[in-house]
Each structure stands twice: as structure tokens, then as C-alpha cells.
Amino acid sequence: MPELLKLQNVKKYFPVNGKNFLKAVDDVSFAVHEAEVFGLVGESGCGKSTLGKLILRLIEPSGGKIVFDGLDVLNARGQELSKIRRGLQIIFQDPLASLNPRMRILETIGEALVVNNIVSRREVKDRVVNLLEKVGLDTDSLYKYSHEFSGGQRQRICIARALAVNPKMIVADEPLSALDVSIQAQIINLLEDLQKDSGLAFVFISHNLLAIEHFSNNVAVMYLGKIVEMSGTGELFKEPMHPYTEALLSAVPKPEVGEKGKRIILEGDVPSPVHIPPGCPFHPRCHKRFEPCDTIVPVYKEAKRNRWVSCHLW
Ligand code: SF4
Question: Angle at CA 205, nearest 5°, toward 170 and 172?
């Protein structure tokens, strides 16, 4: 499949007290192909949501390059920027906060159709009904307000609104974390059906490893603003290379009866991204640290075919 999104050395540094920087995203590079689901995983505060916003240029990066569908996202203006905005949509974590409480669902979804000249005003209602059907909502929803729906239904509305402009890619930023566990499964199944039916690509940001494993083709693990491991989902879940990935996976409940791996408890909290530890940033919490880890920064490299990792063990 052709490449759809490419990030090269993307950075986002926030100044702190005029002399330090909070490195929310630091030197991140990856590519996502058409119809691919690219998972981004890590503990909260690792920079994955900031990265999602950078991809859509909702915040401006401090450096690097982002190319979407052959267009330079960071330098796009006018028609090029509109094309990127149509092709690249986002679903947020909190569906209630991302819907206007004063607008009915017909207007909420219809607005995107009219603003982007997708259909004429006369055709808006039919198209909104069609989008609601796609996400499993009935036509009664058209004239309701967002507060009249459950959390799962609101997330379905947000998905319908994202689909309205026929995007090529959706950045889904923790789309499950505000929902009950039973609803999470419904939403992930809906996203999966949409992906299969329409060949949509996703950047799927989540701390839910089971959802990442189920939905993603490739995965990147982030720690303190950097990707520390990236590979195909199957390989990463079968044989994690970075000790941080290993620790995250050890906390995932195994579905098979009797299968119990040893849980690796991460020592301490995530360090401040303003004061990143010297050497390997993960060394204060790493259960496999050894002599050079606290002084020498490991190089991020392709240690095996299509498997990237930054760790002195590889
Ligand atoms: Fe652990 Fe050392 Fe690898 Fe860092 S470089 S993850 S401290 S073993």
C-alpha cells in the first residue's frame, strides 16, 4: 500500500520558566500506509496525545516534517490546507466535550458536509441519516442534542462527524478511555468494521494494550516523548524487545485459562519530561539496566528486520 502519512524528526518543546524545555515529543519518525492502523501506546504523559494533535496541526511543532497524502502539512496554506483537513480527521477522548451542546445532531454532522461542499443543503439530511446508519444510530437521533445520548452513542456521533468529509485517515485519540468496558468493545468493533469496509487508515492512540493488539497492524511504544520500540503488532506482542514494552505487556491479563506471565512492576513514577534522566531515559525504572545505561543514550535502530528499538541490549 502507498504511504499516506510520514513524520520525520517531529518535536514539540514547551518552554518552562524561560530556561528549560518540556520535551513533550522528541524526534519522532514513522510512516503510516493507506488502510493501515498504526497504534501509539504508552503511559499517560508520554506524549502520544500531543503527537496526535501535531499530526493535525492543532498545535504547531517545534521542528520536523509531516507529509500527508503528498502534502507538506506544516507549510500548507489555502486549498492545500483544506484538502489536508478533509483527508485527516480526529476523534477525541471525551465525546461530550467535543460536541456542541446547543446543536442538534443533524446540524452537528450536517455542518461539516456544508462547510466542505460535500453535498448541497437539500441533500444534507439524507447524507446525515446515511452516516448515522453507518455508525449504528437510528434516525430518531437527528433532532436530539448531545446530552440526550449515552457516552458510547456520543462517540458514535463523533465518528459519524469525522466520516462526513470522506477522510483517508482518522487520528483516534484515546477514543475508548471515557467509556464503560462493555461499550469500549462495541466502539472498537465499529472502528474495525469501518476500517475494513472503507479502507480507512488510523493512527490509534491508546493506553489500552488489548485494544491496540486487536486493532493495529503496527505499533509504536512511547516513553518520555520518544518512540522506544516500533514493529508489527504480532511481533511486538509475541516478543517485546524493549524492557519498557515488556513491563507494559506483563500487566495485560491473558485470556487463555491458566496462562499467567510474571508481572514486571515498574519502579517509581515516570520522570518529569523537563528533567529527563541522563543515559537511557528509562534507566531509573528498568529491571534490566546494566553498566552503560545511566550514562550512555542508546541509539534508536533497526535491531531486527522492521523492528526498531532504543536499548543497549540490542
Ligand atoms: Fe533498560 Fe538499559 Fe535498555 Fe535502557 S538501555 S531499556 S536501562 S537495558
Answer: 25
Q: pLDDT tens, 19-73? A: 889 999 999 999 999 999 999 999 888 899 999 999 999 999 999 999 999 999 9
Q: How are beta strands 71-72 and 63-68 bridged, if at all?
A: antiparallel
Supply the pLDDT for residue 269: 80
> What percent of the chain shows pLDDT beyond 70?
97
Q: 62 CA distance to ligand 1 centroid (A)?
A: 27
Structural domain total, the chain = 1
Longest dimension (CA), the chain: 70
Range of the domain at 182: 3-310
286 lines ligand 1 (CB under 6 A): yes
Task: Say what the pLDDT of residue 218 is.
Answer: 97
| CB-ligand 1 contact for 312 (6 Å cutoff) | yes
Q: Is the pTM of this model over 0.85?
A: yes
**Sign, CA torsion 12/34/162/206:** negative
pLDDT digits (tens, 9 = 90+) for 159-178: 999 999 999 999 999 888 88
For residue 224, the CA-to-ligand 1 centroid distance in Å is: 14
Q: What is the CATH number of the domain that holds 99?
A: 3.40.50.300
